[in-house]
Amino acid sequence: MERLAKWIVKCRVLIIVVAVALLVPSAMGYIGTRINYDILSYLPEDLESMQGQDCLDREFGIASTAIITVEHMPVKELLDMKAEIEQVPGVKEVLWQDNVLDVTVPTEMIPDDISSIYYRDDATMMLVTFDGGTSDDRTISALEQIEKLLRKDCFMGGISAIEADLKALFNSEMPIYVLVAVALSAVILSLGQKSTLVPFIFILGIGFAVVYNMGTNIFFGEISFITEALAAVLQLAVTTDFSIFLLDRYDEELGRGLESQEAMAKAIHNTFTSIVGSSTTTIAGFLAMCTMDLELGSDIGLVMAKGVVFGVLTTVIVLPALILFFDKPIHKYTHRTFIPQLTRTSDFVVRHRKPIVIIALLLFIPFSIAQNKTSVYYTLFDSLPSDLPAIVGTDKMKEDFDMATTHFVILDDSVEGYQVADIVDQIEQEKGITSVVAYEKFLGGGIPEEFIPQSVKDIFQSGGKKMFVVSTSVKPGTPGMTTQLENINRIIKQYDPGAMVAGEGAMTQDLITVADHDFANVSVTSILVVFVIIALVFKSASLPVLLVAAIELAIMINMGIPYFTGSVIPFISSIVIGTIQLGATVDYAILMTTRFQEERQAGREKLDAVRVAASTSSQSIITSGLTFFAANIGVVAVSKIELIKSICMLLARGAIISMVVILFVMPAILAVCSGVIERTSWDWLGKKKLARKARRGSAAAAKALTVKGEMEG
Q: Cα–Cα distances in Å, from 705 out to 164, 304, 547, 697?
């Protein structure tokens, strides 16, 4: 590493040139990376709801649909608009009454079974099907064009329409997320750093890592919009520590009288191990999300782990070159720091160590219970502004047709027509069902089969399967939907054991099951991985328990607060927040514990060592914690997407809670458990290391005496 450090210093101009040049392909990769706005598409493919979606797409070509509610519109104008929509690229078909019946037939003469499908009071409804999937770029583009064709009192709703509007809203907000996060982080860094220029150098260095990370996402093909929103902000928040470590060591070497180039080479060499060690727990925390059955976890985990790796590389390669390039102005323009070392706080904690530990233990009880009782939501609908056009359209479906979502029931075509009619009759009796659209229902409405167009038959019968559509007033992700789906499945499987229910409701129900499993799985995995890393770093059996317990307390408090405030959080928060908070902030505990060990090995008494460790590490912990907070709270302030706001709010609050727990509880734990730590850690006080050095020194001295004797002889 020493040779590499000297090479980095020597070739600093070349490094800057290459780093800037790499921004070009990275930017191209970023532009070429597709963003997926469909959370449900990350469900495991072997689930019945996903197999049903695949069948809808493969056999019927209606995996993605939108519903247009039309109020107070003459038939001629409606037909003109329908014809225009049918010409939009990506639209497969627009279904309305004229596909089945002559539009000249008066509404009052249409059989109730048919009229109830299309009409409610002065409103009617059209179903639009698309060639591509729900989150397919062609589908979203088609929806954007359809929105421009809609007349007054026309409202488009459904999951596909919601995702199209989400894309437009997200694209308008994303640049603001980054700008606000950068601005607020720069303010916090200015409070903790003496140099006026350093915060901007740090952000520039981290900026290289962010662009490289986002550009290399093209190798994944696509990433989730949640990953896109969080990646840059989190990468800025969790890798700032590395820059602080490097600059502090550089200034320390300069203080010893070394020239700038030699000082930087030593700083790189001496901080590389600590930066890699610090980043390992963060990377492990992100990779733990890859154990999720929901592939969204791998999406976030891999991108963020990769981002931390780029953060480490740019810190030890690009940042040194930048610091040396701007060395004179960095040390010329300075001001006093505003983030102090908490000497008095450390004294207070040491004096009251036992009560603090007892209070911390007691806090585990209510917050562990509250965390498990925090309410969550699972639908994208609940996370978007109520004035978004697709949300307004979906509300209109509910208002005019009492329809919150749609199920697609798929049967084998061996099921006879009369059996399908029986199934339809039974499903219509279920609570919350507002209408059922089935081929057999048209026949039951008195329409001769030869009068029904082949195009309509193909919608309901294709590829050895039969399909019909069930509209419901029950919202996806609710207990009522759980009951309704159980009853529908019970009915259809009596006639066809291989029957399936597809659609938003069924996929959301599977999402709930998968998410509950993932929460437990990811939590255990992340704790075990971080536990092992800490055990190896400190060669201790007790420290992993103590350090992880401290951060888990902070996580429980963070995730328990929504229960006490009556807040409802998105399901993904309960899965990823604990993992991110653990991986990103356990470094605070490691930093303090490492300094405590150093002071003990230097011969300080345990309480004095705790005071020194807590006070000297407090400034770095506060700077890091506040930077993490600022980067995320900025997104909370500007985002209109509740899902993004909620995750960033939990991350911001989690950083502050972790910071407070480490500053107040961790020193008390170290003071109270010092004896246990010494007994359960290998060579905690470094006596064996000193003995080895003494033996090597004695051997060297003896060898020198022997050589001297031989020379004299």
A: 83, 57, 48, 12
CB 439 within 8 A of CB 456: yes
Coil, strand or helix at 670? helix
Q: Is the pLDDT of residue 704 over 60?
A: no
The structure tokens 């493919």 sit at 45
Backbone angles phi, psi at 465, to 5 degrees: -130, 155
pLDDT of 220 reads: 94
Residues 6+ apart with CB under 8 A from 478: none
Dist CA 197 CA 209 (whole Å): 19
**pLDDT surpasses 60 at 445:** no
Contact criterion met (CB below 8 Å) for 543 and 599 = no
Inter-residue contact 214 to 232 (CB < 8 Å): yes
pTM, full prediction: 0.87
Structure tokens at 100: 């089945």
Q: Long-range contacts for 261-265 (Cβ within 8 Å, ≥24 apart)? A: 261/9, 261/10, 261/324, 264/5, 264/8, 264/9, 264/320, 264/323, 264/324, 265/2, 265/5, 265/6, 265/8, 265/9
State yes or no: pLDDT of 598 exceeds 70: yes
The candidate with the shortest Cα–Cα distance to 117, out of 391, 406, 395, 453, is 406
69: β partners: 125, 155
Predicted pLDDT of residue 620: 86
